[in-house]
Specification:
mainly alpha; Lysozyme; 5-stranded antiparallel sheet; two-stranded antiparallel ribbon; 17 helices; 46% helix; globular; Peptidoglycan-bd-like; Lytic murein transglycosylase
Length: 391
């Protein structure tokens, strides 16, 4: 099992309208109904029959879908687990090996090599561990499951298109539990819509071809709104009397205004003065501090976990020469039981935390920051035992 594919939570494409086939019930009947719908959507009946022949429900996929505990780790611990000297050195080796591919990507798509190297590293350890879940079985299992069926059904129909093009095989293609395929773990719909034949062999095969995978990832980021030539994340120093309620990805100000408030780059200089940006404190005012530019927001379309995206964005800067962040001295976070208790208490006060799951997601961060401000505490969105006790 690769380092991240068991708990990657990607934002799934929803370009195709929701399927008419109801979720749940007998899996065999569901499979036959999906085959009929695929044909109704234009799939060749023989292709559809071969695609669905032998598909089976995968209980291990469902287990993986329910297992998201790693996102409960705070940023410093999470990033230290994922970023090693070996990964940095391997990243630089890959940058050299595929220098011409990255040059082409930066010229045609404006996506920095650091970003693609970071996702390549975290998703599959530079292609070494791409996942051993049968892709079609996983997609069909999640489409049949009633938790998020409309997110996965479009991926099944996109996978049929890839099969018809000769780019995947329903019997042998494997990947992550959520159906992502290849070195940078893209979903079938993204591969179909943004896949690039980077090595010129007439196919888009993200499992075997690094040029295909890297160029397809870049094309997807551009499609999601990547702004060529602009930064994404940068470590900053903040004054001691900073207004902490101004932090968080929901608060945007021009870089020049942040500079006037005392925000300085730890190394180099801040981005262009008119660029909109946010101040991000992954572990509160006593931990690392970053300024996040518009391209940082785009990365949430690849993965919706705040700690994952922040770590990947930071690692990309490391690969391009940034120093190790100043970890500071953040207070301890809450454990799973405490975080869930906090979320229940916030819900009881009328805050929308996005569900009691023990994960410090965007909804919980926003609620924490608001209640901190109400209580006269430093509103840095980092939950502590003190806050829990006060509630």
């Amino acid at each position: 099992m690769r380092l991240l594919h068991a708990f990657a939570v990607l934002v799934l494409g929803t370009g195709t309208a929701a399927a008419n086939v109801p979720c749940g019930g007998d899996f065999g009947a569901f499979t036959r109904a999906m085959e009929d719908e695929a044909i109704a959507r234009g799939a060749d009946p023989q292709v559809a029959a071969r695609f669905f022949d032998g598909v089976r429900q995968d209980p291990e996929t469902l287990e993986a879908d329910r297992r998201q505990g790693v996102f409960q780790l705070p940023f410093v611990e999470f990033s230290r687990r994922l970023i090693s000297q070996n990964r940095i050195e391997r990243g630089r080796q890959m940058a050299d090996r595929y220098d011409q591919v990255f040059d082409r990507i930066e010229s045609e798509y404006g996506v920095s090599r650091g970003i693609l190297l970071a996702f390549w590293a975290f998703e599959t350890d530079y292609g070494a561990v791409q996942g051993d879940f049968n892709t079609v079985n996983s997609l069909m299992t999640l489409a049949h499951d009633c938790r998020r069926p409309d997110l996965f059904r479009p991926q099944v129909f996109a996978a049929i298109d890839l099969y018809a093009a000769g780019d995947i095989d329903p019997d042998t293609t494997t990947g992550a539990w959520a159906g992502e395929i290849g070195m940078v773990q893209m979903l079938p719909e993204d591969i179909r819509d943004n896949g690039v034949d980077g090595d010129g062999d007439g196919h888009v095969r993200l499992k075997e071809s690094a040029p295909d995978a890297l160029m397809s990832g870049a094309a997807m980021l551009r499609d999601l709104g990547w702004r060529p030539g602009e930064p994404w994340l940068q470590e900053v120093d903040l004054p001691q009397d900073f207004d902490w309620v101004q932090t968080g990805i929901d608060v945007e100000r021009p870089v020049a205004q942040w500079a006037s408030m005392g925000v300085t780059a730890r190394t180099g200089s801040l981005g262009a003065g008119d660029l909109p940006a946010s101040i991000v404190l992954p572990q509160g005012r006593n931990g690392p501090a970053f300024i996040a530019y518009p391209n940082f927001d785009v990365l949430f379309e690849w993965n919706e976990s705040f700690v994952y995206v922040t770590t990947a964005a930071y690692f990309a800067t490391r690969l391009e020469g940034a120093p190790v962040y100043d970890a500071g001295n953040p207070s301890d976070g809450l454990d799973d039981a405490q975080m869930k208790e906090l979320q229940r208490k916030l819900q009881a006060r009328g805050y929308d935390v996005g569900g009691v799951d023990g994960i410090l997601g965007a909804g919980t961060r926003n609620a924490v920051q608001r209640v901190q401000a109400e209580m006269g505490l430093p509103a840095d969105a980092w939950p502590t035992e003190e806050l829990l006790n006060r509630l």
